[in-house]
């Protein structure tokens, strides 16, 4: 699920196609990928990247990207509430 929220303009977009169009007009690529793997809170970056490899590898090759990173926060993450609040604010 994706929600694009711009509070100062009173904009909230929930439709993925509308979000994609909004970002595309601004030169930003937006996509959503599904994954058949259900991760637990201890999943490693390597496990997550491997699960998304079928989508991620061609994307990286097309864009010339050499590396990918995973940011995973969950209830086991130190300072979870502060980190989550920061991401929600962005």
Descriptive account of the structure:
The chain is mainly alpha-helical and 90 residues long. The chain folds into two domains: 1-32, no CATH class; 33-90, no CATH class. The chain is 41% helix and 7% strand. It is built from four helices and two strands; from the N terminus they run ββαααα. The protein has a two-stranded antiparallel sheet. A hairpin with a 4-residue loop joins strand 1 and strand 2. It is globular. The model has no long low-confidence stretch (mean pLDDT 90).
Short description:
It is built from four helices and two strands, in the order ββαααα. With 90 residues, it is mainly alpha-helical. The chain starts with a strand and ends with a helix.
Q: Provide the gyration radius in Å.
A: 15 Å
Q: Biggest sheet: strands, sense, closure?
A: 2 strands, antiparallel
Please tally the β strands and state the result: 2
Order of helices and strands: EEHHHH
| Principal-axes shape call | globular
Write the SSE topology.
Elements: E1 4-6, E2 11-13, H1 16-24, H2 45-51, H3 53-63, H4 80-89
Q: What structural keywords apply?
A:
single chain, 90 residues, mainly alpha, 2 domains, two-stranded antiparallel ribbon, 2 strands
């Amino acid at each position: 699920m994706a929600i694009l929220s711009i509070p100062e303009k009173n904009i909230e977009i929930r439709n993925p196609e509308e979000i994609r169009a909004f970002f595309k007009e601004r030169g930003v690529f937006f996509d959503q990928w599904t994954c058949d793997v259900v991760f637990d809170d201890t999943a490693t970056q390597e496990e997550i990247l491997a699960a998304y490899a079928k989508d991620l590898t061609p994307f990286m090759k097309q864009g010339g990207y050499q590396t990918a990173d995973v940011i995973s926060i969950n209830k086991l993450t130190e300072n979870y509430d502060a980190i989550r609040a920061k991401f929600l604010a962005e």
